[in-house]
Write a structure and sequence with these properties.
The protein contains four helices and nine strands. It is of the alpha+beta class. The protein has a six-stranded antiparallel sheet with strand order 3-4-8-7-6-5, with no helix packed on it. A three-stranded antiparallel sheet has the order 2-1-9. The longest helix has 18 residues. It starts with a helix and ends with a helix. The structure holds fe (iii) ion.
Length: 162
């Protein structure tokens, strides 16, 4: 194989990997499926939801309605309704926030580097509408080792949406 062909095959391989891999940390703005003004979001959401989803707030630990929720179901974005997490990936982290080992669909959740409050963390956002969900940490259980630490206020159960 010539050098050029080798290079082309490397590019193709990396494109294939990036399409099929887990969510990666992105610094670029992604076009959204749902784009609303702050005023429109305020009309749709409760003040508490607006603060968390649209202003990257955090609900107090152990305050959310899904911390101890153990039934089956899909957790969707409370802002736009996109399916985000399955109850099968939920685990008791003891943190006081609903915790998941992985998103239901990797591309549904977008990860950003978050340097607020003097820390470097990984922020999790709804890819469809850009709303803040929570943060991701590397101290989760096997097999992923990930802990998606998500605000209850950012979630709604699929069965409750209709
Ligand atoms: Fe959303």
């Amino acid at each position: 194989m010539t050098k050029d062909l080798l290079k082309a095959s490397e590019v193709l391989t990396s494109m294939f990997r990036s399409r099929n891999s887990k969510p990666t940390t992105a610094e670029v703005e992604t076009p959204r499926d749902v784009e609303l003004s702050d005023d429109e979001w305020r009309r749709r959401l409760s003040p508490e939801q607006f603060r968390v989803l649209r202003q990257a707030g955090t609900e107090p630990a152990f305050s959310g309605e899904y911390v101890d929720y153990h039934d089956d179901g899909f957790f969707c974005c409370a802002a736009c309704g996109a399916r985000l997490f399955s109850s099968g990936a939920k685990f008791d982290s003891g943190s006081g926030w609903p915790s998941f080992t992985e998103p239901a669909i990797a591309s549904a959740v977008e990860l950003h580097r978050d340097r607020s409050f003097g820390m470097v963390r990984t922020e999790a956002l709804c890819r469809a509408c850009g709303s803040h969900l929570g943060h991701v940490f590397d101290d989760g259980p096997r097999p992923t080792g990930q802990r998606y630490c998500i605000n209850s206020l950012s979630l709604t159960l699929e069965s409750e949406q209709q």
